[in-house]
Amino acid sequence: MDPKTTALVLIEFQNDFTSDGGTLHGAVNEVMDATGTLANAKTALDAAHAAGVTVLHSPISFAPGYHEISAHPYGILAGVVDSNSFVKGTWGCEIVGDVAPSGEDIVLEGKRGLDAFGSTNLDFILRSKGIRTVVLAGFLTNCCVESTMRSAYEKGFEVYTLTDAVGATSLEEHANAIKYDYPMFSKPITTDEFVGALADQAATVDTSRGY
Questions:
Q1: Residue 57 belongs to what H/E stretch?
Q2: Beta partners for 98?
Q3: I need a surface site. Which of 1, 121, 150, 177 has the fewest CB within 10 A?
Q4: Cα distances (Å, whole numbers) of residue 118 to 18, 72, 122, 204
């Protein structure tokens, strides 16, 4: 895993999901507690920064009133509207402090749906930076992360998913996606395996330089 051609994409690590008091935190906190989602994401982020991996944050946001989407949303977006989640300018829409953007991190703008490629310039950024490997973490395991994973796979990127740095609204949905869907469109790995792969690459580089 070459840091120069690898990007870590953190999807919707926003207070409405991640934090006590968030509008949707109660729906995902069981899985977060079971997997250590946020702590693992921070570990992955710290390792990515240390190795020089490109880091992108993909929050979702809407203006008050949700005029960017249908007046009669259904499915997951209906849940977002009904719970008044991810409204621009609110605490709930902010990226949680544990994995807040820093340094040269890139924050994508324009995400209004599930796929992080769908209404953002993610594809342009990845290709312009010569990225070939995409590593995904975030929410929801079986929704936005999976949608982004499928698109990345079809666009020809090498895709990894951090199975212990994603979260869903139930342990059953989380486990089902990882067991049956993730292997079809990505290479599922743990955060420790991701960190180890970066360390192995660094060791290989040092050896080649005679260190």
A1: strand 54-58
A2: none
A3: 121
A4: 23, 20, 9, 36
Contact 28, 17 (CB under 8 A): yes
Q: What is the pLDDT of residues 140-179, one digit of tens each?
A: 999 999 999 999 999 999 999 999 999 999 999 999 999 9
C-alpha torsion angle, residues 165, 113, 96, 139 (rounded to 10): -20
pTM: 0.95
Q: How distant is the alpha carbon of residue 65 from its chain centre? A: 25
Alpha helices of the chain — where are they, by DSSP H? 15-18, 25-35, 37-51, 76-82, 122-128, 144-154, 171-176, 182-185, 191-208
Query: Rg of the chain's alpha carbons, rounded to an integer?
Result: 17
The 3-state DSSP composition of the chain as helix, strand, coil percent (nearest 5) reads: 45, 20, 35
Query: What letters, b where the CB count within 10 A reaches 16 and e where it falls short, cover 101-127?
Result: eeeebbebeebebbbbbbebebbeebe
- Please identify which residue in the block is written with the tokens 């740095």: 165
Whose tokens are 């212990």? That residue is: 164
Q: How far apart are the first and last CA of the chain?
A: 20
The string of DSSP codes covering 25-36 is: HHHHHHHHHHHT
